[in-house]
Amino acid sequence: MSFEIKSSSETYDVIIVGSGAGGGMASKILSEAGLSVAVLEAGKDFDPAKDEDRTQLRPSWESPRRGAGTRIRPFGDFDQAIGGWDIEGEPYTRAQGTSFDWFRSRMVGGRTNHWGRISLRFGPNDFKRKSIDGLGDNWPIGYDDLKPYYDRVDKLIGVFGSKEGIYNEPDGFFLPPPKPRLHELYIMKGAKKSNMPVIPGRLSMLTRPINNERGVCFFCNQCNRACQAYADFSSGTCLVKPAMQKGNVELYTQAMVRSVTTDEKGNATGVSFISKVDMKEYKLRSRVVVLGASACESARIMLNSKSKTHPNGVGNTSGMVGRYLHDSTGADRMGIMPDLIDRERYNEDGVGGMHVYTPWWLENKKLDFARGYHIEYWGGMTMPSYGIGFSMDTMRKYLKDEFGNPSPNGGYGEGLKKDIRRIYGSTLGMSGRGESIPQYSNYCEIDNNVVDKYGIPVLKFHYQWTDQEIKQAKHMQDTFEEILTESGATLLGKKPGPETMYGLATPGRIIHEVGTTRMGDNPDTSVLNSNCQAHDCKNLFVVDAGPFVSQADKNPTWTILALAWRTSDYIVSELKKKNI
Amino acid sequence: MNRRENLKLLFTGSLASGLLLTNCTPEDKQADLSPKIAGGTPGGRIEAEIERDQQLLSETFFTQEERKKLDILVDIIMPADDESGSATEAGVPDFIEFMMKDSPSYQTPMRGGMMWLDSYGNDHYGKTFLELSENERMEIIDLIAWPDKASPEIKGAVNFFNILRNLTATGFFTTEMGFNYLGYKGNVANAWDGVPKDVMQKHGVELPEKYLPYYLKPEERGTVAVWDDEGNLIG
């Protein structure tokens, strides 16, 4: 069970702030080591196996908005991630001339309820980028340090994929990948002509069981709605709940952490939080504090934890907390495949994501930008929901009658109805997700002018893309056109040009933000040491993506999980040695 | 008694505060959140979402006259045919009514567009849209339903009809009737085993030879995975 309000005088061994990927993994590993653990979550408890929480398998008509997004669920009315870009009572600000959009999920499992389950290991090069191109910084650890943990994460959580032997895309312990969908086969054929690899996706859904506690995927395409069979990874169902069942873990929900409390020596003593239920402040004590509130929220808590020994916020002697904030780059393009018009019907839902993808395949030495990107593909005969049948005022012309004459755009009537049926499942597209260069000048700080409804000072963001990312986006657009065209598709819309930075997504929009509490060997230029322990507060650790020195062209979750496991092992060993 | 009522009473000074705050029983603090109007989204809703759905469902945007026009218009866009019923039979007007409140930016173009139909009818036929004959109505609709041919002077009405077409189509195809008409086969538990062979053949695509031994075999979906030290699946 979880506590909505509990005032406790007992001292926990560890307090973990946040129940997402990092916090969830820490709760599991630390409780299995016999430690008493309190997990604090700003949102509510939630279990997709309970019918009252279930949105999985609900047809569109059960939503009065037919699945359209809302402020609280911008990715759709049935999406399980509660929060969004703009949370009532929890504002953030941006410096003039800069942009950043901050996505938060307020619920057990955090943003693992949202993500696409793309589970890629960082490769050896991804930890040593400065050595390769001179930009940014190297991590203080390398692939070999994390490999054993990636292996364990694969086996604990499950990921499907194929062994490829690509140096910087390390293989793991893969479950069998699902066969490609039809549009994916077209893309594979097209990409082959351009010598681009398209390989099975690497996603954390159980195509086969890994234990007797979680079910297997039944291919409904709805991982974003949370799985009643626990066949996909989310931190709540796969880490936090099992940890609570087996170990000494207490879950505090609706608990908005304001600060880390410290003693006169500067060591952490616990946390101070506001209960959203009674709007009162509570304190909890512990021997160790672990922050896993997300890169920006953890930085916010640290910056708001000011004391005599930590005048700039705990962990912030270097002034680096909030600095080097960076998100993945993102750009997209869409097309329509004439060969898929009037297509045969069958159940093509598959898993909740792509069955194939393209890892980065080029040499940057021959290009005018420094880092790579991977490509995700989408399309197919997905469940009709809000938006189906839209845009026939511009799209209907792609339909041809038996004599090859295009249908006129717009219209009405039986012919329109038939044409929408004919065009269904014929559009497809792709999204590039790439590596940006971390910048000291891209950061978040406390905005002293604004507090949220809990009275906690909010974050102010400063973020601008550089030429590196803009050139990368331009390259993405050229590649997208090439693949779509080679696959036989007709391009839709105008190619994004320099006026939109080639369609480069606003920082934050890819929801891969990292780097705000980066690790390093030098305490003057980093917040954490190579074990994700604060340089200036030895019993304070960070387990989200804040410690990342650089965000590779891979989704960050698998690395958050591996790193959180490694950090948790270190905490256990340091406690045993009585070093903390 | 909830917190807001407490505060209201405190500030109006009608009762002593101590008594009020201690008199609240735990039951009082729990607001009654059970939906009173059917039709809100089910599944894991937070209080703010239940309240918002209830609020939107309790409001009415379209006037009775607008609603009559809407019924006519959506059935022009998605009529009944041999294979399925019409937009009104699929409940599309209720969906559009809801969307006006859920996405208020729709309100002005929709209301304005329906007014434009009356204005045009008055100017050219001396009748409002509802008073027109079916043929007369269709003469007006044909002016605004074909964006590439429409006169630039009536672009606003064309935009209105584009929005109406979008909402009508989405409203129709997201119902059970629409799913059936479309032939959507998903949203059921199944064991995906790739695109049917005859479909692949027809499209001239095939599975890459290289991956054939590795793709998921549906008959192995019940077997717990076991790997060797190199990450090869051995059981």
Automatic annotation (TrEMBL), chain A:
<dbReference type="Pfam" id="PF05199">
    <property type="entry name" value="GMC_oxred_C"/>
</dbReference>
<dbReference type="InterPro" id="IPR000172">
    <property type="entry name" value="GMC_OxRdtase_N"/>
</dbReference>
<comment type="similarity">
    <text>Belongs to the GMC oxidoreductase family.</text>
</comment>
<keyword id="KW-0274">FAD</keyword>
<dbReference type="GO" id="GO:0050660">
    <property type="term" value="F:flavin adenine dinucleotide binding"/>
</dbReference>
<keyword id="KW-0560">Oxidoreductase</keyword>
<feature type="domain" description="Glucose-methanol-choline oxidoreductase C-terminal">
    <location>
        <begin position="444"/>
        <end position="564"/>
    </location>
</feature>
<dbReference type="InterPro" id="IPR051473">
    <property type="entry name" value="P2Ox-like"/>
</dbReference>
<feature type="domain" description="Glucose-methanol-choline oxidoreductase N-terminal">
    <location>
        <begin position="98"/>
        <end position="327"/>
    </location>
</feature>
<dbReference type="Pfam" id="PF00732">
    <property type="entry name" value="GMC_oxred_N"/>
</dbReference>
<dbReference type="InterPro" id="IPR007867">
    <property type="entry name" value="GMC_OxRtase_C"/>
</dbReference>
<dbReference type="GO" id="GO:0016614">
    <property type="term" value="F:oxidoreductase activity, acting on CH-OH group of donors"/>
</dbReference>
<protein>
    <submittedName>
        <fullName>Choline dehydrogenase-like flavoprotein</fullName>
    </submittedName>
</protein>
<keyword id="KW-0285">Flavoprotein</keyword>
<feature type="region of interest" description="Disordered">
    <location>
        <begin position="48"/>
        <end position="69"/>
    </location>
</feature>
<dbReference type="InterPro" id="IPR036188">
    <property type="entry name" value="FAD/NAD-bd_sf"/>
</dbReference>
Automatic annotation (TrEMBL), chain B:
<dbReference type="InterPro" id="IPR027056">
    <property type="entry name" value="Gluconate_2DH_su3"/>
</dbReference>
<protein>
    <submittedName>
        <fullName>Gluconate 2-dehydrogenase subunit 3-like protein</fullName>
    </submittedName>
</protein>
<dbReference type="Pfam" id="PF13618">
    <property type="entry name" value="Gluconate_2-dh3"/>
</dbReference>
